[in-house]
Amino acid sequence: MSVARAQRKRLAAQLAKSGFPAAKQEARELYDAAWGDPDILHCWSIRRLDGEPLEWLRGFTIFAGNRVRVDRGVYVPRPQTELLVDRAITLLPEQGLAADLCTGSGAIAVALRVARPGARVVATDIDARAVRCAAKNRVEVYQGHLVEPVPTELMGRFDVVVAVAPYVPTEELVFLPRDVIRFEPRQALDGGINGVEVLEQVVSAGAQLLHSGGSLLLELGGDEDTKLDGVLERAGFTLVEHLIDEEGDLRGLHVSLK
Fold first, then answer.
1. SS3 for 113?
2. Strand, coil or helix: what is 160?
3. CB burial readout 215-240, b (16+ within 10 A) else e
4. Could you read off the pLDDT of 211-258 as tens digits, one per residue?
5. To the nearest 10°, the Cα dihedral for 51, 57, 63, 67?
6. Which bin fits 213, alpha (ψ -120 to 50), beta or left (φ > 0)?
7. Nearest to 112 by CA among 124, 101, 125, 98
8. What pLDDT, in 10s, does the model give residues 178-224?
9. SS3 243
């Protein structure tokens, strides 16, 4: 057995023993990212076994087919968010204007930019670490809360606004995976008492950013769509569709500004 294979096998066994479901795959990815350096691999294996996100260790993730840098301390993009991205791409004109609120690493903005190279995509985030990370991913990003830092000349002109705002009810944070709740930024997860505290603010921001007929795409779950009914109506939005994943779970809303 080669040294490389032995190292991967040993790490996979450690990960499996600690309850990591994709132990073999993770061991291979960590080994490749460390270029087989035994010292780096040893350090990373300790951190991963402690629960630190794999994406932080190797420094990137693959999201919507794109390699996206993810710095330590920045929210890790989820595969289920790609459902929103796919819809946003279909709605964004070739020369259109899109906003990615609560951008994190800038993964959504990157996906939109790649799919619509002629469009302008701007992003915002309140977290300075996230803004620095998104900038490294060549995203046009502004630091501040939702709509606040968006250039004034762009207000009311957007075709599409996408937001993966925190939407986990505060009391349900304890049910998140151990590595998520321990390491990832709480402000990217905590949606308040009923889970829609920030989402309600996003609805208001979307109404300010979009032109008439523009689309707002929100990631959410559970019964949070019904919790937003009144807020959406008062802000001038009409429901276009519920975004449902392959397992039949609610993943998002597509609404349009009247």
1. helix
2. strand
3. bbbbbbbeebbeebeebbeebebeee
4. 999 999 999 999 999 999 999 999 999 999 999 999 999 999 999 999
5. 180
6. left
7. 98
8. 778 889 999 999 999 999 999 999 999 999 999 999 999 999 999 99
9. strand
Separation between Cα atoms, residue 36 and residue 43, nearest integer Å: 12
CA gap 93, 108 in Å, rounded: 16
What burial class does residue 24 get, using C-beta atoms within 10 Å of its C-beta: 0-12 exposed, 13-18 middle, 19+ buried?
Answer: middle
Q: Within 10 Å of residue 83's Cβ, how many Cβ atoms?
A: 17
Which pTM does this prediction carry? 0.91
Residue spans of alpha helices (H) in 164-228: 178-183, 197-209, 224-227
Relative to beta strand 158-163, strand 210-219 is parallel
Q: What is the spatial distance between Cα 182 and Cα 47, in angstroms, rounded to a whole number?
A: 13
Contact 168, 196 (CB under 8 A): no
CA pair distance 52, 50, nearest whole angstrom: 6
The per-residue b/e assignment along 161-197, b for 16 or more CB within 10 angstroms, e otherwise, is: bbbbbbbbbbeeeeeeeebbeebbeeebbbbeeebbb
Whose structure tokens read 């087919």? Answer: 65
